[in-house]
Amino acid sequence: MKGCLIVGEHSLKLAERKRSLEISRKKLREEVLSRIKYVKTCVLARELCLLVRTNRAVLEPKDVQDICLYISNLCKEEGCEEPGELCNKAVEAINSGDEEKYLELCAQSCMKCGEARRPTPKKATYVA
Q1: HSE (side-chain half, CA atoms, 13 Å) at 89
Q2: If we measure between CA atoms, which residue out of 85, 77, 75 comes closest to residue 113?
Q3: Element housing 126 (H / E)
Q4: Among 46, 56, 77, 87, which has the minimal tally of Cβ within 10 Å of its Cβ?
Q5: Which pLDDT tens digit goes with each residue over 20-61?
Q6: Residue ranges making up the domain that contains 76
Q7: Is residue 21 part of a domain?
């Protein structure tokens, strides 16, 4: 009878450990998917914005307009309404030919983006 109790307790501990590992795996999965979404939206938007701003001399206004609209949608997809709206206003400035206003709005959008979301760096996790 005593041997049965020990085996039963051992099985219970193993089941608890397995549940704990599964919860940890699910939590890590959520963190990884969140990071991937961040890279697909915020990081991409920021890189595109910097590319457009540093290479605007070689881009046509239509190129800049298309890219800025795309950036605006990426910002809004991630829930960053203010930077997205600033990008939209920058597009309007491009359409009206006001380059100074465009540059000002674009810079404001970049600043808001940088301030709004920066995930904390995670330690690399070794997975066997």
Answers
A1: 15
A2: 75
A3: none
A4: 77
A5: 777 888 889 999 999 999 899 988 998 998 899 899 899 999
A6: 36-116
A7: no
Residue 26 lies in a domain: no
Sequence-distant (≥ 6) Cβ neighbours of residue 42 within 8 angstroms: 74, 75, 78, 80, 113, 117
Tell whether 87 is covered by a domain: yes
What is the enclosing helix (H) or strand (E) of 55? Answer: none
The total number of structural domains that make up the chain: 1
Angle between helices 61-77 and 44-54 (to 10 degrees): 160
- How long a stretch of residues is the chain? 128
Q: Kindly state whether residue 1 falls inside one of the protein's structural domains.
A: no
Question: Per the structure block, which two tokens stand in for 87?
Answer: 């990008």
Q: pLDDT value at position 107?
A: 85
Asked whether the beta carbons of 68 and 106 are under 8 A apart, the reply is yes
User: Which helix H or strand E contains 8, and what residues bound it?
Assistant: helix 2-38
pLDDT tens per residue across span 62-117: 999 999 999 999 999 888 889 899 999 999 999 999 989 998 998 888 888 764 54
